Amino acid sequence: MPTPAWLKEARAKTGRAWLARYGWTIDGGAPRVAKAVICAAPHTTNWDLPFTLAICWALGIELAWIGKDSLFKGPAGPFMRGLGGIAVDRSKRLNQVQSAAALFDAHDELLLLVPPEGTRSRGERWKTGFYYIALEAKVPIVLGYLDYERKQGGFGEVFWPTGNIHEDEARIRAFYSDKKGKFPEHMTPVYFAPSTPS
Question: What is the pTM assigned to this prediction?
Answer without folding.
Answer: 0.87
